[in-house]
Amino acid sequence: MNSRKLHVIRIIIGTALLPATLAGCSFGPESKSQMIPESQQQNVNEATSSNEVGAGFGRVYLQRTESTGGSILTGVQRNISSDPFDIVQVLLSGPTKAEQDAGLRSAVPSSTEVLSARYVASDLVKVDLTNEIFKATGDDLVSSVAQIVLTLCDISGIERVIIVVSGQVNEWPKGDGSLTSQPLTAYDFPGRAISSQPAFPAIVNTLNT
């Protein structure tokens, strides 16, 4: 067999193997949100709480009253890990003395405790709080929910947050005042925080193109 024939055979074999190689790649919807079986959720939470997750600079969202009397949320840095449970605990601890002096406060009632905060899907975190959260009412309750959602969505990969109270599903106010029991996202609180909202997908007018 001469070298030319051998070269042709190699090309044919390589072409035949290409579909099998591509089939093994992780493309498509499966590479996005992946539900985590309930039996594995605690294991995931324990893993993220281990020493493998080092401390780093993150942000929690606190509330500031504007000169107009309105309230706005702003992100402040914290030296924390990327474990959702740790982050919610830090948020619930409220502002530091220096932040209080700067006019920052938390709308989340100080007696509120976090029972758990764990991934239930690759982009979804479920937070279980004590019922002291309901001591916040009106706009403070909206800000409380926004603080939790925006703080967690600041973690790379987290896009949705579902909040329950002592394991029970509840309806929560969005930024527009409507209620939902569905997972919340940063898009549900437009204008609630300074420079925290992800850009909405651009609306392209195709009629004039």
Descriptive keywords:
four-stranded mixed β-sheet, 209 residues, 30% helix, disordered C terminus, alpha+beta
Q: What count of helical segments does DSSP give?
A: 5
Tell me the strand percentage band. 15-25%
Shape: globular
Q: How confident overall, as mean pLDDT?
A: 78
Largest beta sheet: strand ordering? 4-5-6-7
Order of helices and strands: HHEEHHEEEHEEEE
Uncertain spans, ≥5 residues at pLDDT below 50?
11-31, 43-55, 196-209
Structural class: alpha+beta
Query: How far apart are the termini?
Result: 58 Å
Helix content: 25-40%
Main sheet, how many strands, which sense, barrel?
Answer: 4 strands, mixed
What is the total number of structural domains? 1
| Topology, number of strands | 9
Radius of gyration (CA) equals: 23 Å
Report on this model:
There is one protein chain. The chain has one domain (33-188). The chain is built from 5 helices and 9 strands; from the N terminus they run ααββααβββαββββ. The protein has helices at residues 3-23, 38-48, 84-92, 97-101, 138-153; strands at residues 56-65, 71-80, 104-105, 114-121, 124-129, 160-165, 168-169, 172-173, 179-180. The strands form 3 sheets. A 4-stranded mixed sheet has the order 4-5-6-7. A hairpin with a 5-residue loop joins strand 1 (56-65) and strand 2. The longest helix is centred in the N-terminal third of the chain and has 21 residues, at 3-23. The N and C termini lie far apart (58 Å).
